[in-house]
Amino acid sequence: MSVIAAGALALAATMSAQAQTLLTGADTDEILNAARGYGSATLTTQSNGDPQITGKIEGITYQVYFRNCTDNTDCEDLNFYLGFLDLKPSLELINDWNYNKRFSRAYLDPDDDACIEMDVDLVQGVTAEYLDSQFGLWNMVVGQFSEHVGYK
């Protein structure tokens, strides 16, 4: 009897998860609202017409680029980006970040400025809770990376 009850409970949990509304790259207002949960944010347009969010976390400006879009609306993923102009840490410091951290990648751009990125795949859709957790992760990455490279 307990096996049947466990199976029914698992099925109910699966059905409940499937009933949740999933957000995609077309849900720019909801994604913007998630960004605003961590600081100021505005929705703009990239030079190619795709959406872009410019936000601030603790006074640090970052961008969220909507990528792999169809007709500038149905975007498959988000690219979180932060670059510190004229902050040129050593390659060893950047490598230390990449060696010790997960979920983001740091690099020196062609001008040797410190940059960091993180991607979120939206192809199958994500829950609002998952999207919020990704912005929470980005919030942590921005704070830790800014300290790591000597910005704060």
Helix/strand order: HHEEEEHEEH
Class derived from helix and strand content: alpha+beta
Strand content: 25-35%
* Major pleated sheet: 6 strands, antiparallel
**Cα separation of the termini:** 59 Å
Radius of gyration, in Å, reads: 18 Å
Low-confidence stretches: none
Overall 3D geometry?
Answer: globular
Number of DSSP strand runs: 6
Please give the order of strands in the largest beta sheet: 1-2-3-4-6-5
The helix content, as a percent range, equals 25-40%
Number of DSSP helical runs: 4
- pLDDT averaged over residues: 92
Explain how this protein is built.
This protein is globular. By secondary structure, the protein is an alpha+beta fold. The protein has helices spanning 2-19, 28-36, 91-100, 128-148, and strands spanning 41-45, 51-57, 60-70, 74-84, 105-108, 114-121. It is built from four helices and six strands, in the order ααββββαββα. The mean pLDDT is 92. The chain has a six-stranded antiparallel sheet with strand order 1-2-3-4-6-5. Strand 2 and strand 3 form a beta hairpin.
